[in-house]
């Protein structure tokens, strides 16, 4: 029998999940029926000729596949205050902002109470399975969560990040209490306008409640790593605050000072314990279990672009298991991690068939140059989408979602692989974003290809006791022919011959046939490595935060386009050294 807590039964949640997934095809039909019935008066669906029909065949015949670009004008009308049922029958209650790290500016995405409800369903489902493997007692969570700036649109809707929309809902705190995940920090810290002050206070509150903490969490693995890199620099100041019972002068926002000061009491014994544990650590290995001895696991999104941070996160976590959080986006949720004992690299996400209507476009093999290099030809040859229960194990697909918040047959842009099935619903592994990020000629390199190249360079640098702290890329077309630029921020100084070898290693690590062939015939110029000053990626992060983003949604952009001028400026103004590959000379 799974542990029961007040107002929450893990047994009941798992029973409901099992019932939902036993006949996923039927649940999908019912879900689409409900979406179309609730939104049958929506202008968008009316204009497409659906005329109130709610069967899958009519839906697919009338409603085209779309990207955000095709919906922008509709969403903008909603944001500007048009009260007509444009995308949904019921009014959109607020606007979510995507992270904006890919295109340099956030997208507007409709948000409503249905998305809050599906978020809580995902949270409870994955927790029920986690709690079966790692039972928790009543306690707290050290959560590095942050709201973003909020503003009112022309029509009076609140616009903020999807995570902030969730955090400010009444359901969020009730659910966190149900699943033993109440944050150590008061709301004033979570909703602070200053990320740096919030982070310091999260660390301090976590230490104050160190014996009660059972989970260490943030939305993304990057945010946890950033928190503990910060801890390395401020731990003595935190100890002083706890010893004296007085909050650091670096916390200047009155509401935060008041809220955190209420938790602080002079505690020399705790301060000495923390101090002695810290000085006893070797290069901060195992700092999390050392300071939070009752923590059961570290939890956050650790797949896709978060995988490069896993080595550092494992260093901080020591013997504690890392557990990848669930799969979703600003546009909506897709699946829950119901296999918490698997390492993040093997994580899959089981689709909940009642939180949206899902379709999948079968993808060609990567070797199909036409599919990879020409949007026009790719669209001409694109296979028809298939249903949730029709996907095949081992195959890759582009995922299409239809949500309760007014997105119909929406191309999310993610490529997933089917790892297996739970009952009749698929378990998906996130593979990559569909869009190419590095291409000049007939070359085709994705975010995953870049990550693999970085991993090869990291092995070379590890032999010199150096690590890559973060990275990004750029296609430089100012040369003729163009070339790839890789930006690296390193943990220390490296000898020039090491960096030169690293540059060659990166160039050779791109094994795509189009790239290799183009390099050999000089159709692509030698790859360039630009080594950055320490703290450059913090400056980029601060730039996004000043645009109104939240640390909870921040992801380092893995390719910086020419249109993203400010980030390129930050990168290029912080270059220490530059090297060109001699790999194909």
In short, what is this structure?
With 585 residues, this protein is an alpha+beta fold. Helices cover 40% and strands 19% of the residues. Helix 18 (447-462) packs antiparallel against helix 19 (496-509).
What does this structure look like?
The chain folds into 3 domains: 1-96 and 358-364 and 389-433, no CATH class; 138-329, no CATH class; 437-580. It has 585 residues and is α+β, with helices and mostly antiparallel strands. 40% of the residues lie in helices and 19% in strands. An 8-stranded antiparallel β-sheet has the order 11-12-13-18-17-16-14-15. It has 22 helices and 22 strands. Keywords: Ligase. GO terms for molecular function: acid-amino acid ligase activity.
Distance between the termini: 66 Å
Quaternary:
single chain
Strand order of the largest sheet: 11-12-13-18-17-16-14-15
What is the arithmetic mean of pLDDT?
89
GO molecular function: acid-amino acid ligase activity
Pfam families: GH3, GH3_C, GH3_M
Organism: Dendrobium catenatum
Keywords: Ligase
């Amino acid at each position: 029998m799974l542990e029961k807590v007040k107002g929450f039964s893990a047994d009941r949640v798992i029973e409901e999940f099992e019932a939902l997934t036993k006949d996923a095809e039927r649940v999908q039909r019912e879900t689409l029926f409900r979406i179309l019935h609730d939104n049958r008066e929506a202008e968008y669906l009316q204009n497409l000729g659906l005329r109130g029909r709610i069967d899958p065949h009519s839906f697919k015949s009338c409603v085209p596949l779309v990207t955000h670009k095709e919906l922008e004008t509709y969403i903008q009308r909603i944001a500007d205050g048009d009260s007509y049922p444009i995308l949904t029958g019921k009014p959109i209650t607020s606007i979510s902002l995507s992270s904006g790290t890919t295109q340099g500016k956030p997208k507007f995405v409709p948000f409503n109470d249905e998305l809050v409800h599906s978020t809580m369903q995902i949270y409870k489902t994955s927790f029920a399975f986690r709690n079966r493997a790692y039972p928790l007692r009543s306690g707290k969570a050290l959560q590095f969560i942050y709201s973003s700036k909020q503003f009112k649109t022309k029509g009076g809707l609140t616009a903020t990040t999807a995570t902030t929309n969730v955090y400010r809902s009444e359901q969020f705190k009730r659910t966190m209490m149900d699943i033993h995940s109440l944050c150590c920090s008061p709301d004033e810290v979570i909703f602070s306008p200053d990320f740096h002050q919030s982070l310091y206070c999260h660390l301090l509150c976590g230490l104050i409640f160190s014996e009660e903490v059972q989970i260490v969490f943030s939305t993304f693995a990057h945010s946890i790593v950033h928190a503990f890199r910060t801890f390395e620099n401020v731990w003595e100041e935190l100890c002083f605050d706890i010893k004296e019972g007085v909050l650091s002068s670096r916390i200047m926002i009155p509401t935060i000072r008041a809220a955190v000061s209420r938790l602080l009491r002079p505690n020399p014994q705790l301060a000495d314990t923390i101090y002695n544990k810290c000085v006893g650590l070797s290069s901060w290995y195992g700092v999390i279990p050392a300071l939070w001895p009752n923590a059961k696991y570290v939890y956050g999104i650790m797949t896709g672009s978060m995988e490069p941070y896993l080595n550092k996160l494992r260093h901080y976590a020591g013997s504690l298991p890392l557990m990848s959080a669930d799969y979703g986006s600003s546009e909506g949720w897709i699946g829950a991690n119901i296999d918490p004992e698997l390492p993040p690299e093997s994580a899959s996400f089981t689709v909940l068939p009642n939180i949206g209507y899902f379709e999948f476009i079968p993808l060609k093999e990567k070797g199909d140059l036409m599919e990879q290099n020409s949007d026009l030809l790719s669209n001409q040859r694109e296979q028809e989408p298939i249903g949730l229960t029709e996907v095949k194990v081992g195959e890759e697909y582009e995922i299409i979602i239809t949500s309760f918040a007014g997105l119909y047959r929406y191309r999310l842009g993610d490529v997933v692989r089917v790892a297996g099935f739970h009952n009749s619903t698929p378990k998906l592994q996130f593979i990559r974003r569909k869009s190419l990020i590095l291409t000049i000629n007939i070359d085709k390199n994705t975010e995953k290809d870049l990550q693999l190249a970085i991993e090869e360079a990291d092995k070379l640098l590890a032999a010199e006791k150096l690590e890559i702290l973060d990275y990004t890329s750029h296609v430089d077309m100012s040369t003729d022919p163009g070339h790839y630029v890789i930006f690296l921020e390193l943990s220390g100084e490296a000898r020039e011959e090491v960096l030169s070898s690293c540059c060659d290693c990166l160039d050779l690590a791109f094994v795509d046939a189009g790239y290799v062939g183009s390099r050999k015939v000089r159709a692509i110029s030698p790859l360039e490595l630009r080594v950055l000053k320490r703290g450059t990626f913090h400056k980029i992060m601060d730039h996004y935060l000043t645009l109104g983003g939240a640390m909870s949604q921040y992801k380092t952009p893995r390719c910086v386009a020419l249109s993203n001028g400010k980030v390129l400026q930050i990168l290029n103004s912080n270059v220490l050294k530059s090297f060109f590959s001699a790999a194909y000379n």
